[in-house]
Amino acid sequence: MSPGWRIVLAGVPILAAILISVSSRRVWLERAGIGLTGADVTGGLITATALMLVITVAFLLVVKTTGRRITGILQALVGVGIVAIVVTHRTATAHQWAAKGVDARAPQVHVSGWPWVCLIAGAVTIVSGIALAALADRWPHQSARRRGEFSGDSRSTWDALDRGEDPTVSDAAVPPETAGHDIAASRSDISQQKPSTSSATGPSHNDVDNGQHVHTDDTSG
Hints:
Blueprint: H1 3-24, E1 27-31, E2 34-37, H2 38-42, H3 45-59, H4 65-88, H5 94-99, E3 109-111, H6 114-134, H7 142-149, H8 153-162, H9 176-201, H10 205-220
Antiparallel strand pairs: 1-2, 1-3
Helix pairs in contact: 1-3, 1-6, 3-4, 4-6
Transmembrane segments: 41-63, 70-93, 113-136
Organism: Cutibacterium porci
Protein name: Trp biosynthesis-associated membrane protein
């Protein structure tokens, strides 16, 4: 699953929770200039569903494939509950109006568009929950992400260190075994060239002594 789809599946419930939370604080029904908010009409049920959506998103950070599938099913069920709450609370009871000091027989009840916001949020949550349950096995878990960190160049670097090689040396550099062999060969060549070098630079110590002896004999003669 691409990172974009993971962001969508995790972001849709959060967005739905925000919309529901805002909608629950807005006026759903109004009569005689007195309004009832979504929390008043539903008795706080709609607010509880927003909290449940946030909890299901938090589960995605710690659960694995089976847990994500269960989380997706729970999200879909919460979405069904949101839709059911909105549909069954299109009107307020006489007791709810009386709590606001409004006569239930007063005419002209105005319904705002905020219940529709919750209805749409619930429907979208159902779709995202089903998608999450269906694609749960394609969501990478923590161990897969850790293995991905050691893939490619990073993995090659660790392998080079295990072999005792320097990963900072380029591929064109001479391997350590070859370099050590060349150094030993160079030292052997230098040791073999020392006698010829000394003979080429001048006479030896014995030659000097023989020359001095001959010169002494000539002088005495």
